[in-house]
Amino acid sequence: MSKTHNFFAGPAILPQDVLIEASSSALRYQDGLSLMEMSHRSQPIAEVFEEAENLVVELLNVPSDYKVLFLTGGASSQFYMAPMNLLNANETAGYVDTGTWSTKAIKEAKIFGNVEVIASSKDKNFSYLPKGFAEPEGLKYLHLTSNNTITGTQIQEFGTYKSRLVCDMSSDIFSRPFDISKFDLVYAGAQKNLGPSGVTLAIVKKDIVGKVEREIPTMLNYQTHIDKNSMFNTPPTFPVYVCLLTLRWIKKLGGIEAMVKRNAEKSNLLYGEIDRNPLFYGTVEKEDRSKMNVCFLLNDDKLNDAFLDAAKKANIVGIKGHRSVGGFRASTYNAMDIESVQALVDVMQNFEKVHG
Ligand SMILES: *Cc1c(COP(=O)(O)O)cnc(C)c1O
């Protein structure tokens, strides 16, 4: 059977080696048990969590005044958990509105305090990122979305901000280095670039927690999970294990710098073809193009189904664009090999020969 090229946006591709080892551990891990059958209080699972936490610290250079947490509820739960834990009712947080996910984050934050949307790219269907916006004094935090999975824009570099940052990095964490000291909180659903769905990574600056006046339900309080090393209740043990395997894989390949190189090669290849091929065009301002989610359209959208057919014949799946953008979206997360991007480029070139 030939290889299927998985361009889905999430849940998304995982490294083949990770899937092989995870399958084996699903059947038999230690003491004749499946990893899924083991108590979260057992030594082997404690070791999985400890190593996963340590690898996040190592790969992202997380200093000791931060805590790495494995939570549940997806990035969508962080949309409310962040303001619930950080923002008093009389305080103001700034949000940059760059698409569906930030819009949802803004809606949730308004439940807990004042929200000022200090910049938005809604005027052009979120096809660019606002820059050079004024940042009001005294914001409790400024919320950013590092990579907009749906529209395919990505903050290329975190600049200098007056405010402390909170960032949704769901779809590009571990794809590049960043200076965590600017951030009070970073969160990411695992199912884009880290592991299977069911676990959410949060990296929390410890001294920001416990400063709000409201009462916070135990499970929604970062302090609970900091105190209990992500083991207050029964955590998603198997998803965290698969994250651990992925983190080991990133380290084995050379860490975050190796991911930067790998992702640049893939996105250069694909954007290069989009710009060269007269049948296609990219939907995003060039300077804001995402290296994780590449969005593009056919000039003649009557050919959309024919292109999807041609891709399918080449074992390419998951390239249909989000309904809000249309066209195509190729998600090229860390785990994807350049061969898969080449397979897509080959289809685009053959398509040009037939329809050009
Ligand atoms: C997928 C995604 C989310 C939503 O994640 P869930 O884990 O489904 O809650 C939020 N933000 C971004 C940037 C995403 O890509």
Characterization of this structure:
The protein is an alpha/beta fold and 356 residues long. The chain folds into two domains: 16-253, Type I PLP-dependent aspartate aminotransferase-like (Major domain) (Aspartate Aminotransferase, domain 2, 3-Layer(aba) Sandwich); 255-355, Aspartate Aminotransferase, domain 1. It is built from nine helices and 14 strands. Helix 3 runs parallel beside helix 4 (100-109). The radius of gyration is 21 Å and the shape is globular. The model has no long low-confidence stretch (mean pLDDT 97). The structure holds pyridoxal-5'-phosphate (PLP).
Shape: globular
CATH C-level label of the largest domain: Alpha Beta
H/E order of the elements?
Answer: EHHEHEHEEEEEEEHHHEEHEEH
Strand order of the largest sheet: 2-10-9-8-5-3-4
What is the CATH architecture term of the largest domain?
Answer: 3-Layer(aba) Sandwich
**How much β-strand is present in the residues?**
15-25%
Helices and strands in order:
Blueprint: E1 5-6, H1 16-27, H2 43-60, E2 66-71, H3 74-86, E3 92-97, H4 100-109, E4 114-120, E5 142-145, E6 147-148, E7 153-154, E8 165-168, E9 183-189, E10 200-205, H5 222-227, H6 237-253, H7 255-276, E11 280-282, E12 293-298, H8 304-313, E13 316-317, E14 328-331, H9 338-355
Parallel strand pairs: 1-13, 3-4, 3-5, 5-8, 8-9
Antiparallel strand pairs: 2-10, 6-7, 9-10, 11-12, 12-14
The structure holds pyridoxal-5'-phosphate.
Task: Describe the structure using short key phrases.
Aspartate Aminotransferase, domain 1; 7-stranded mixed β-sheet; 356 residues; Aspartate Aminotransferase, domain 2; binds pyridoxal-5'-phosphate; 2 domains; 3-stranded antiparallel β-sheet; 9 helices; alpha/beta
